[in-house]
User: Which sequence fits this backbone?
């Protein structure tokens, strides 16, 4: 997805019109239309930073460097884990998935045990 598509997608997700986004950024509506059509590719860093705050995502998401959905909020530690996982070889990834399955199963067992105790 291009930066133009991502800007439009986030603007719509935030229920903003082009005019409303432009006002929040101190720009003309035509500037937003140009960003969303791809006619402007080099958005100023200051505009991109402010836009990402308004659209509740990261600048790297808008620019297409980050494919994590903006609906998923990650702490810095979680973001490091995701990046490390993506950079890991397939053997490590398999081990991580197995470990997470074990942890999920243990959590499910604890949850069902707690529910059993409460109903007893």
Assistant:
């Amino acid at each position: 997805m291009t930066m133009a598509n991502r800007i439009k997608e986030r603007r719509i997700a935030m229920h903003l019109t082009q005019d409303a986004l432009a006002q929040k950024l101190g720009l003309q509506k035509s500037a937003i239309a140009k960003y969303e059509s791809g006619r402007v590719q080099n958005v100023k860093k200051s505009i991109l930073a402010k836009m990402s705050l308004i659209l509740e995502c990261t600048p790297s998401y808008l620019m297409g460097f980050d494919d994590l959905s903006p609906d998923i909020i990650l702490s810095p530690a979680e973001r490091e884990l995701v990046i490390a996982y993506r950079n890991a070889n397939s053997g490590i990834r398999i081990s991580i998935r197995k470990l997470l399955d074990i942890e999920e199963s243990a959590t499910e067992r604890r949850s069902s045990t707690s529910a059993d105790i409460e109903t007893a």
